[in-house]
Structure formats: structure tokens, C-alpha cells
């Protein structure tokens, strides 16, 4: 369970939508429910993402599908977090913001910069991506990193060198996008550029004044990234994710944790929990979140996998001591 890591949906959302539309894929064909991508801050277990990367290439038959899907994305339009990242006054400040905010967007991954002579190497590493998927994750991040630099120093920016994980027999498309030679089969993703580009004389921007304040809901999402050693929080978030498949089951949740149902049940017992109680707690919190977004109670019950409203009402009252309608009434009174 200590090896469970998460990534937020917005890092994959537009790739997913682009591929589904471009290739005319049925819902769920890529292995992740489409409902996951309706909320960009949703936490996905990285095991699901590894499977998703594999499905992308397997189903489309296109090894360059990630590159072709991210070329035209504008990362500034992904909500308060990316607006904050892109509001830095120069590239040096932007790199710092992106580097230390990554831990709130992906657990277990890091971004850092190192200097060799007059060259800056901006480095991304995620040791929890499976080897056969590394090339896709590497390309995804290399394009994002390059877009950030181009935003500050100009669209004609070309790295001195790009180092990518995995390999491609044909890399003409990659050299065309980055404008430089590509080093393949590298353990990390690296973008090399001249150190002078960090200086304000090269990258100072007159940024428009955009609202950066988060709503309470946005703040909840942003702070919500489990530490690997926090087993209770990891279990909570895996159950929360499994709700996208319907009512959570011991079998599905244990598989997402790479445990047998028996191992998972024993671990719950060891930390003083039981599956019915914790899954009810997760679903009641999810229900409250949807209520604050004005989703009707009947629709909430359906989304959470309940076949009848009475079962949903019983679960909610057990967790909150109020029926959903009573809770909604109180919510409206204090809003």
C-alpha cells in the first residue's frame, strides 16, 4: 500500500478526450471511466494510469498518439492552479512554482533544475510509471515543460537538447516539435536550455490580471494529496476513485491497492476499520460535495451506484444523522 501513488485527472483529461473523439472510441474503452475526467482534480491511482497509457497505444495502434494529442493544449486554462503557475513575472519564478507545486498534482514524481556550465537542465522523474509506459509519460511532460518555457521566452524557443524515456524508431515528429535532436532511452525527462533565458531581460512578461482566488471546493481539492505512509488516506482516496465504477466493492478496491481481498480486509482490521463503515463515509462526503454543486439527490444516488433512493438515504442518514433532504435544507439555510 505504501507504493500507491496518485495523479490528478487534469494532467490526462485532454489527451483522453482528444483520443476518444479522434478515434471514435466507446465510453470506457481506454480503461478509465469518462466520469473521472469531469472533475479535473480527481485523484487517479497510478496503476490505472499505467493501464491507460498501455491502452492508448494498443487500441489506436499509434505510437505517437500522446505527442499528437498534446501539441495544441493550452495549460493556462486548467483552473486556479495553472493560472497561478503562469502568473509568475519571469521564467525563473515560473520554474520554481511549477517545481514545488508538482507534489500537489502527482505524488511520487518530481521536477528539478540543475546547471552544467551555461546550460540549465530541467528534469522530470516519476519512478512509479511502468517501463513500457514511460515514453508516453515522458512525452506528455516534455511538451508541457517546453510550452511553459515558450510562454515566457517566445514561441520560437527551441531546447538545446531533449532527453526522453523509452524509444521511437521514427522520431521526425518529435524533432519537428522540439526543434532539436532527441536523446532516447533516458531514465528521466530533461529539457536543456541556455541559463540566460531565466533572466528577466529575456523572459519578463506583462501578465494580465486574472483572478487567482480558489473557492473552498478548489482549496479542498488542492490540499487533497495523500502521503504514501498515510494508509487511511490512501484507502479513502482509492475508495473515492472506485465510486466511478459504481458502489465500491472489496474486490475492486483491493485490486487497485494491489492486494488480495483477504489481505485488504486484514489490513483494515489491523488499523481499526471495516469496509462498510469507511466506504459509507467516503460516499457520504462525495454526496455532500455534489449537493454543494446543486446536483439533485436522485442523480447523486445514481452516480454513486445506488439502484434505489431508499438505500442511499439509509447510508447517508447513518453517516450524517440527517436524511439527504434534511441535510440539503440546512445547507440552503446557511448558504
Task: Describe what this molecule looks like in 3D.
The protein has 335 residues and is an alpha+beta fold. It has 2 domains: 6-203, Alpha-Beta Complex (H-NOX domain), CATH 3.90.1520; 230-334, Arc Repressor Mutant, subunit A (Orthogonal Bundle), CATH 1.10.10. Helix content is 49%, strand content 9%. The chain contains 16 helices and 7 strands. The protein has a 5-stranded mixed β-sheet with strand order 3-4-7-5-6. A two-stranded antiparallel sheet has the order 1-2. Helix 10 (231-242) packs across helix 13 and helix 11 packs across helix 12 (261-270). The longest helix is centred in the middle third of the chain and has 20 residues, at 134-153. The mean pLDDT is 90.
Strand and helix layout:
Elements: E1 6-8, H1 13-23, E2 43-45, H2 46-60, H3 65-70, H4 80-85, H5 91-101, E3 110-116, E4 119-125, H6 134-153, E5 161-163, H7 172-178, E6 182-183, E7 189-194, H8 200-203, H9 216-223, H10 231-242, H11 250-256, H12 261-270, H13 275-292, H14 297-303, H15 309-320, H16 324-334
